[in-house]
Amino acid sequence: MQRADSLLVRLALATVFLAGLSAAAIGLLPPGGVPAAHAQQLNAPPWLMRHVGTGAGQIAPVVLYRARSLYFQQLQGGKIRNGCYFAMDATRPSGVGKNGRFYIICERNQVFKVMSSGHGNGRNLGRLGNFANGRECAKNFSNAQDSKLTAGGPYLTAELKDSFKGYYKANGKTQPLVRTFIQFEGMGEAANARPREIGGHASVTLHWQCRMKVPGNQYADKEGFVPYGSFVNYTGGRSNGCTSWSWEDAQDIKELVRNNPTTLYIYPESRDIAAVAGGTNGAYWNAACLRSIGKPKFWPKEQLEPVIQRWKASLPKGPPPKPLPICR
After folding, report:
1. SS3 170
2. 13-51: pLDDT as tens digits
3. Domain that holds residue 55
């Protein structure tokens, strides 16, 4: 994230809306979609309308419509008080910068920030089914357990959890990688977000190589070892179904929602996928990705979860994995 953009987001942090703001005064929208041709029905402020569209750095009308609906309904209902809300258009390429698809919107402070975000990579189970996604564009979506796929719909951010990934070397210094996970609470088809462990985090991890002996280290196991590996940055790539951001963007998002939940709307939902796959006129999908994937597909959990369970049951029962070698 560029410094100026980061400062804008931090400014929004300092001046968020208070609970009790009248949703009627700022144009509470009913739920549902809106055709791209009727963007004027959004009832959004003029500065925000300048960002509405399907080009690079813009937000599609239906995505903003539903994101604003969700946000102001939750605000009016006293569920949140945050001055910012999030949206994601998973029909777009993962991209970086202005070609991103994740949005931070803070209307009072006129903040509109676009960033990259990963989508669920899915799985290829061979003869049982292939629901894997490419790096740039998502074709398959699902709310099934262990599918590693993205599920569109309304969410609220919840608690933050820090996870130690191991040690790595950067700028000549060996240091720990602690990644924060933002839990999502889903609604509707996405209501199983918590058991699926769906949330958001920085798109960084470690590729473990060995165990490093550090007795007394706060992260060490009972034998005094911590994992050591190489730093992996997969910004704009795929994830296990979670939403992932660059390290810099993730830090800003983390501070926006720490002890201050807000809404996230992820497009598309199953109804949108069915409409596009069925050729319904007016249904929105990013044109570049639609050319790339052909027809999108939603895999209902009732259909996919038994397939995944059969695949897991068919895996050979081998010996437990060997421990990492000791670092030299």
Report:
1. strand
2. 444 333 333 333 233 333 334 444 445 578 899 999 999
3. 3-159+181-192+248-314
